[in-house]
Design goal:
The protein has 428 residues and is an alpha/beta fold. It contains 14 helices and 16 strands. Helices cover 36% and strands 16% of the residues. Helix 2 packs antiparallel against helix 10, helix 3 runs parallel beside helix 10 and helix 11 runs parallel beside helix 14. It binds pyridoxal-5'-phosphate.
Length: 428
């Protein structure tokens, strides 16, 4: 009997946990088997079996110029030919720090790391060192990476004490993380009333992107700024997703606010592993070797990765880069809602800059509890319907859609026509 060759997915599931190196890629959020990508160009992907998809996942945010943008490719090729990384200072690291500092008025120094996870982990360490306190506050539904202090979900009942959101996270660490519903100023005030003297930092996605896109309600970020200041805690604006995605630089700063610490990754690395934490000299000079907060990395400031990021930031810094991208994103978000409703399907969306989420519920959610009332089964059907139309939407109802400068007006129109067909079938 002839042996049937194993599919790539079969091979993957034998050697990688769940077949993947990051959970959402497994399609468990929508069912079915993921495809394997062979290459990407602009707004499109080509799979191992030759299918072409219009891509709205864009590496989960980093690829604001689309796949294989010529300037990013050139920067990577030129740098690779000169060596990928050295573990010795390079001009590129200085230029990256200077570029970020020019883009954001609240930061004076930057430490480069390799991921968003590392950035938030290190920023918390700095905040704890600055304040001499241990507790941190996070908002339910925000994601800040997978390290122990922030892989935390809400505890039972009204208690703010967090519990691990994963096996293997020590409850003793989880208890130091207090959880509050997103956009709930009163709950945040209550937590400060009880724990105010013990809170080192409040960390927040200034626009939540990891429960789907959920913008801050008026006054929410201001309340975080005021409460942290009043209680001697630091405000960490986790702009790993929003930074250079919603606008050039920081979203919080664009609202006229001044976070104490900023965390970045995704767009600043152009799809390569780059993260950063940044803030005033007063705080960043506590980091080793200038200060007592230890943090290091073999690949931190890696030349190849930083060259890619700098090339991308160079392109997006051009005047007029964001408005058409944001306008196109808005047209897509509004168009999807309009077509779903046309077929009697309850739908709404939240948009921030070049990201949005289509929610299958009447009104746009403002927190995780509301997000959870969306129709996940309908999302599953929508996802697979769109995939059949050659359009790759996020494989989970709780992710944001990322639009890039490579997505054209025609791509948007094509997407809306496909959605029209999908919704008309779903409504039957
Ligand atoms: C993606 C993300 C992270 C984690 O970044 P990784 O590079 O995946 O470790 C942290 N915070 C926010 C807001 C993110 O969107």
């Amino acid at each position: 009997m002839q042996e049937v060759p194993k599919s790539l997915w079969q091979r993957a599931t034998e050697v990688l946990p769940g077949g993947v190196n990051s959970p959402v890629r497994s399609f468990r959020g929508v069912g079915g088997e993921p495809f394997f990508v062979r290459e990407g160009a602009g707004a499109y992907l080509v799979t191992e079996d030759g299918t072409r998809y219009l891509d709205y996942v864009m590496g989960y945010g980093p690829l604001i110029l689309g796949h294989a943008h010529p300037q990013v490719v050139a920067a990577v090729q030129e740098q690779a030919a000169r060596g990928v990384g050295f573990g010795i200072p390079t001009r590129l690291e200085v230029e990256m720090a200077e570029t970020l500092i020019r883009a954001m008025s609240s930061i004076e120094m930057v430490r480069l790391v390799n991921s968003g996870t590392e950035a938030t982990m290190s920023a918390l360490r700095v905040a704890r060192a600055v304040t001499g306190r241990q507790r941190v506050v996070k908002f339910i539904g925000c994601y800040h990476g997978h390290h122990d202090s922030l892989l935390i979900k809400a505890g039972s009942g009204a208690a703010a004490l967090g519990v691990p959101d994963s096996e293997g996270v020590p409850p003793a660490i989880a208890e130091l993380t207090l959880t509050v519903p997103y956009n709930d100023i009163d709950a945040l005030k209550s937590v400060f009333k009880v724990y105010g003297k013990e809170i080192a930092a409040v960390i927040v996605e200034p626009v939540a992107g990891n429960m789907g896109t959920v913008p801050p309600l008026p006054g929410f970020l201001e309340a975080i700024q005021d409460l942290t200041k009043a209680h001697g805690a630091l405000w960490i604006s986790d702009e790993v997703m929003t930074g250079f995605r919603v606008n050039y630089g920081s979203f919080a700063e664009a609202q006229g606010l001044r976070p104490d610490l900023m965390t970045l990754a995704k767009v600043i690395g152009a799809g390569m592993p780059v993260g950063a934490y940044a803030g005033p000299r007063e705080y960043l000079s506590l980091v080793a070797p200038s200060g007592p907060v230890y943090q290091a990395g073999t690949f931190s400031g890696n030349a190849l990765a930083v060259a890619a990021g700098l090339a991308q930031l160079g392109v997006v810094s051009a005047p007029g880069f964001y408005p058409p991208l944001v306008e196109r994103t808005g047209r897509l978000a509004a168009g999807l809602v309009e077509r779903a409703r046309h077929y009697g399907i309850p739908a709404s969306s939240n948009q921030a800059g070049a990201m949005f989420t289509l929610f299958f519920r009447e009104t746009p959610p403002t927190n995780m509890a509301e997000v959870m009332t969306c129709d996940a089964e309908r999302y599953r059907q929508y996802f697979h319907g769109m995939l059949q139309e050659g359009i790759f939407m996020p494989p989970s109802p709780y992710e944001s859609v990322f639009v890039s400068a490579a997505h054209t007006d025609d791509d948007v129109e094509r997407t809306l026509r496909a959605a029209d067909r999908v919704f008309s079938r779903l409504a039957q």
